[in-house]
């Protein structure tokens, strides 16, 4: 059985990014999640206990997370919950880990800008480099030998121009629906 969890919290450590000898990109960081509640008797908001998680991201998510988030930022993490017992000498405990499927900034607390990355092609013939990943060589991921991710400059430029033009024109949903073949 796989347990999934979605947690909002504050990045508690600088993300650590590395690539294994097999070519797997991994980024991990600590996440602090504190429940807030309103104490009616005091008439104030109070902090509950803080839960700490170790978040691990793999492959493309690992690269994007390592270049996008920093300590102190508020994020939303969705992934698989893992509880692991550990013991070192006289100390023992339980590690609470999240293997992330998705990580993003928590827009309740601020604004964020999205930049799409385009993976470099594996060969001049135009074959998608993810074909290499399917073969298991790990070549499709940034930070792994022979690959790189770069912002999709053409798409970013087009999006910026479209956004700027849209900001100058009034929004007319009825016209957009009619042009899409939907009657209003």
Automatic annotation (TrEMBL):
Taxonomic superkingdom: Bacteria
Keyword check for Metal-binding: no
Biased composition (Acidic residues): 151-161
GO terms for MF: single-stranded DNA binding
Record-linked SUPFAM superfamilies: Nucleic acid-binding proteins
Keyword check for DNA-binding: yes
Disordered: annotated span: 125-184
Name by which UniProt lists this protein: Single-stranded DNA-binding protein
Lineage: Bacteria, Bacillati, Actinomycetota, Actinomycetes, Micrococcales
């Amino acid at each position: 059985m796989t347990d999934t969890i979605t947690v909002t919290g504050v990045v508690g450590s600088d993300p650590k990014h590395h690539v294994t000898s097999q070519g797997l990109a991994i980024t991990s960081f600590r996440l602090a999640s504190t429940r807030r509640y309103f104490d009616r008797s005091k008439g104030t908001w109070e902090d509950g206990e803080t839960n700490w998680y170790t978040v691990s991201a793999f492959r493309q998510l690992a690269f994007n997370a390592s270049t996008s988030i920093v300590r102190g930022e508020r994020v939303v993490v969705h992934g698989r919950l893992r509880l692991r017992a550990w013991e070192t000498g006289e100390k023992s405990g339980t590690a609470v880990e999240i293997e992330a499927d998705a990580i993003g900034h928590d827009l309740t607390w601020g604004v964020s800008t999205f930049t799409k990355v385009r993976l470099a092609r594996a060969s001049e013939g135009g074959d998608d480099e993810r074909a290499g990943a399917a073969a298991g060589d790990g070549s499709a991921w940034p930070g792994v030998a022979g690959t790189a991710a770069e912002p999709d400059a053409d798409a970013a430029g087009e999006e910026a121009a479209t956004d700027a033009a849209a900001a100058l024109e009034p929004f007319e949903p009825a016209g957009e629906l009619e042009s899409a073949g939907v009657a209003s």
